[in-house]
Fold:
Amino acid sequence: MTRQRQLIFDLIMAAPEHRTAEEIYDLARAEMPSLARGTVYRNLGLLVREGQIRKLEMPDAPARYDRERRPHPHLVCERCGKVEDLVMPDGLLRPFALELGEDITGYDLKLYHLCPVCRKKA
Ligand SMILES: [Zn+2]
Ligand SMILES: [Zn+2]
Structure:
């Protein structure tokens, strides 16, 4: 791994936040001021392709990057876009599998709410 890629990887692994490429760029540049934006984007793409991190596509907003690679649902703030991990309740997919008569092989589940900070402002 290059020094740049290691830094980007470490920043993602260090926190449960699901940051955007721009947020990661700002953090990375604080430690490596010469880092170019394109380098950050390119290395994020490589880390996703290698399966070291996950990319979380967001509707009408920049993608976010996730250190947790196992499938899990997300809780998204409708207002500020903050993303948190949720634990999939046991058996939640079973009714769908029964209805379809086949195994569910994966899912992409986002639940929306107002986070405590935005709820206070509302
Ligand atoms: Zn919020
Ligand atoms: Zn996540």
Observations:
- Residues 98 and 104 are 10 Å apart (CA to CA).
- The longest strand covers residues 61-66.
- The radius of gyration is 17 Å.
